[in-house]
Amino acid sequence: MSAPTVTLPLEVSQSTPLLEVQGLRVAFGGKEVVHGIDFSVMPGETLALVGESGSGKTVSALSLLRLLQDAEVQGAAVLSGEGRAPARDLLRLSERELLAVRGREIAMIFQEPMTALNPLYPVGDQIAEVLQLKQGLDRRAAWQGAVEALRDTGIPDPEQRARSYPHQLSGGQRQRAMIAMALAGRPRLLLADEPTTALDVTLRGQILELLGEARKQHGMALLLITHDLNLVRRFADRVAVMENGVLVEHGTVADVFSAPQHPYTRKLIDSLPERDVVEEEAPAGEPVMQAKDMRVAYATRLPGFKGWFRRGEFVAVKNASFAIPPGRTLGVVGESGSGKSTLAFAALALHPHRGDLEVLGRRWSGKAATDNAIRRTVQVVFQDPFSSLSPRMTVEEIVGEGLAVHEPGLDVAARRERVVQALADVGLTEGQFHGLLSRYPHEFSGGQRQRLAVARALIVQPRLLVLDEPTSALDVTVQKQVLGLLQRLQRERGLSYLLITHDMSVIRAMAHEVLVMRAGEIVESGPVREVLDSPKHAYTRTLVEATT
Amino acid sequence: MSGPTPASSSIDRAPAAAPRAASVSQSPAARAWRRFRRNRLGFVSLVVFCALVGISLFAEIVSNDRPLLVYYEGQFYVPLARDYPETAFGGEFPTPADYLDPYVREKITSGSNWAIYPLNPHGPATISYDSKYPFPSPPSRENLLGTDERGRDMLAQLIYGFRLSVVFGLVLTAIGVVIGVITGAVQGYFGGRTDLTFQRFIEIWSSMPELYLLIIFSAIFSPSVWLLVVLLSLFGWMGLSDYVRAEFLRNRQMDYVKAARALGVGSRQIMWRHILPNSMTPVVTFLPFRMSAAILALTSLDFLGLGVPPGTPSLGELLSQGKQNIDAWWISIETFAVLVITLLLLTFMGDALRDALDPRKVDR
What we know:
The structure holds 2 protein chains of 2 kinds. Chain A contains 20 helices and 20 strands. In chain A, α4 (123-135) crosses α5 and α14 runs parallel beside α16. In chain A, 36% of the residues lie in helices and 24% in strands. The longest helix of chain A has 18 residues, at 201-218. Chain A is an alpha/beta fold. The two termini of chain A are 37 Å apart. Chain A has a 6-stranded mixed β-sheet with strand order 6-7-8-3-9-10, sandwiched between helices. In chain A, strands 16-17-18-13-19-20 form a 6-stranded mixed β-sheet, sandwiched between helices. In chain A, strands 2-1-4-5 form a 4-stranded antiparallel β-sheet, covered by helices on one side. Chain A has helices at residues 57-64, 95-101, 113-116, 123-135, 139-152, 158-162, 171-184, 201-218, 229-235, 253-258, 263-269, 340-347, 368-377, 395-406, 412-425, 446-458, 476-493, 504-510, 528-533, 538-546, and strands at residues 19-28, 31-41, 46-50, 71-79, 88-89, 106-109, 189-193, 221-226, 238-243, 246-252, 289-301, 311-324, 329-333, 354-359, 362-363, 378-381, 464-468, 496-501, 513-518, 521-527. In chain A, β7 (189-193), α8 and β8 form a beta-alpha-beta unit. By secondary structure, chain B is mainly α. Chain B has 13 helices and 3 strands; from the N terminus they run αααββαβααααααααα. In chain B, a hairpin with a 2-residue loop joins β1 and β2 (75-77). Chain B is elongated and about 80 Å long. Chain B starts with 27 loop residues before the first helix and ends in a 7-residue tail after the last helix. The chains are: A alpha/beta, B mainly alpha. At the A-B interface, α12, α13, β16, α14 and α16 of A face α10 and α11 of B.
């Protein structure tokens, strides 16, 4: 690795850094993933460590507390002294000494609060345990402290919530509970690893405000690990950009964002997806898909004795009406649980629906023989490119499968030719990948896999693609490329898209019309400019505000 | 489930394609095989086991009371494959020739005549009449591992008994896998009411007292290996079925299955091409353990006298002889050793397979 190492601008400041990391190297099994990075965190400041997945940002942070198994860590991470405690190098402390640092001086919150909280204990107990251990409180005082800590995070009815188990809390409440737990030890530094990525957009701002609040109150410093540049701009004081285990740029947020020095930083900053779609009025003609008063429901189990005889019903989509003209994109936005994915499955007839749903004038019948003709015109691309490709099939088998179903007459050579063509259409060629057709999905990166998924859908020449969060599992720069690919395909082939997403920037870049869904209902719909620029419904307004 | 899912940290952008570009693309099965080979204990076990099975499949050539080839007065005879009367070799009676009879032996080896005897000149039912000791006779030059209580050569008994056990285990495992995979796949893929009905059926079926049924049936029908295969197969598929069902339940939720359904691929194709290959890990891991269970089952039934018909060489029967002739130590110890080695080899192979197929293990 011959990437330039960026040295810290030595800050002329009277205070010493709270944490000074120098020449941090992390390796797994002899393979180095972090190549000697330097950074420092001043008391009370927010430093954002930014980078895409695989850049080593999380590994760097976890290695500070030596939370990584099998990792070989080199370098120094000096935590400044406080009170009687002298300055210490975290990487050289014994496991015993480190225990006193973890939670007490440096605490950590994780991306996924459901897995970071123990599902077998009420959250109050888990917070109280920290208080007992780190502040030496007795049980009653610790419980009181736990309730107070929860109250501080703004959870309503904290006495009640303290007795709840993690699964009984909503995602936002769980993250608040975890923050309460982390703050319970009154740490001087909080490591926050993607603290809001798992949350709905409207909650993200709230959680970060909460963290900022806590920072001011306790004079705590925050090391925010994230890939979300929006958050960085809004909440961080300084930012450090990582690429492939190297710190490429470092500076105050204002400096880095207004005048990025390193090409990678520039690439990250303008990875906001661009709008590049046909804008004219849709040509008159039959819509590709049309729904009227569509209703989708799931059977649920009724509680108690009743459940033995009758099944309840959860209505995921109510009274949905929409039309998708040829060559246009209908965006569906909403938070998790709003029914937007259910809508997508119903459109694909992977889930039964009631009401009218027509694809090019034909209705789903529920019989394989008649539905197969419609299936050919409606294809799908899923969110997670890792689970949407069977790991035991080769590229040729995956992409060629649609032909086997819809054009069984093709011989092997003709089929292969079509597969190669479809792969070329999405930008995957034999030239880039030797033996492309006989490769397995695990050899491709997330963005490349998503291209494979698009190729699988395109090969049967559909008219409509259902895109279920097509880029939310991808890094921002890759997201931009995949969206660009989708835009090009739409321009060239007049494809229609039903785009399901929670990401307003994707909607802005892709959609012509937009539906805003909440709790199964369409609360607002219309041309994308109108809806996003002058939202009428209060919910749409919160969504739009949360993302700008 | 629906909605925004974080994924940034789980998805690598660059490393997937670049570092492997040089190496030839490998199927997951090929990777598993490579990992299996790297586990030395497991791989050696596999080689040894295959060698033992290979040898035992040719047991007639290795251990038999007939010569493989006889050259007698300008003519070739193949006693291994055909019966010849004693008169063919200048004997007096038109009865099948007994090649261990010193008289016959002398006839076919004197002068220009010659005969090739197998390494161990005893068949599975040959009785060593000329032994110097009362039966069971201890290891000697004639009977390298001694004889059992009926005067049959122990080495021959062990070779043929091992073969029977292994073949029995293989057949039982194969049948169990086929039935288990089919029933598990149907339950897991269709789920709902099909699953519910089938699960109840399995619960009832598995609560049947297997051993008593075997005793009853062995009283009704004349005992034979095939009867045992059928009876044990009736109960041997349920464990695997549960594993396969769980895998199918999990895998049918995967996006690649949904994508295939959206493409219009039929249920049977989805089960066969998409889900089954991704559900084989527990099946393959299960195989060696299932086989050792089958071998043990046969051995126990033979030990109880409920197994193969009397006179068939079997490890279980030898064990019960060992129990009755406790002072003939060689019977118990040799049989025990063969059983332990067989089961150990299978277990080592199973462990290695499990490690090789463990999705959480990363190639370094």
